[in-house]
Write a structure and sequence with these properties.
The chain is an alpha+beta fold and 110 residues long. Helices cover 27% and strands 16% of the residues. It is flat. Residues 105-110 have low confidence and may be disordered.
Length: 110
């Protein structure tokens, strides 16, 4: 596990506890989520390091990796996943600041 010292969004170093959640499926470990006091970004801290992260996604029980795409559970899972993705995108758009693309970059784009 690696401890994050600074917020990856704003660079500040002060966090408040936000939530503790358990990985019931694979590791059975608790993960602490913290919230940056400056920008309200919520993230896992400490988080699995680059060498550990893949172990959390290796289970055959992890539905998004299932080869059985026709079972009722898989169909429901995929529908819920699609709905959640749209909701997340809406939240990102709602709280993101618009950016302008530099004219030279947009002109050279296909």
């Amino acid at each position: 596990m690696e401890i994050i010292e600074k917020c990856i969004i704003c660079g500040k170093k002060v966090f408040d506890p936000f939530l503790i959640c358990n990985d019931y499926l694979v590791s059975k470990l608790d993960f602490k989520l913290v919230k940056c006091r400056n920008c309200d970004f919520v993230f896992t801290n400490p988080r699995p390091n680059i060498n550990e992260i893949s172990t959390y996604y290796e289970s055959d029980e992890y539905l998004s990796h299932s080869s059985d795409k026709q079972s009722l559970i898989s169909l429901v899972y995929n529908k819920v996943q699609s709905i959640n993705t749209r909701r997340k995108l809406k939240l990102i758009k709602q709280y993101s600041k618009p950016i302008s693309i530099h004219p030279e970059i947009s002109e050279s784009s296909p």
